[in-house]
Write a structure and sequence with these properties.
InterPro entries: DUF3606. The chain is about 50% helix and about 0% strand. By secondary structure, it is mainly alpha-helical. The chain has a domain of about 35 residues. It is globular, with a radius of gyration of 10 Å.
């Protein structure tokens, strides 16, 4: 069984690499959304963590 501690930290602290499964899993967990919701947010507002966080109504990690 995997948990939040098993998710690898992203390669980039300020941008979400939506094509990298580890990055997608990390940021989805941080924002409390599904991978699909995260993908949709990145498509709408771009990959900057702070912008995605604001779009999702969450705080950036």
């Amino acid at each position: 069984m995997s948990g939040p501690q098993d998710i690898l930290k992203p390669r980039f602290a300020q941008h979400i690499d939506i094509h990298c499964p580890d990055d997608r899993a990390y940021w989805a967990e941080q924002f409390g959304v599904s991978g699909d919701e995260l993908k949709d947010a990145v498509k709408m507002v771009g990959s900057r963590v702070t912008t995605v966080a604001a779009h999702l109504g969450r705080q950036a990690a």
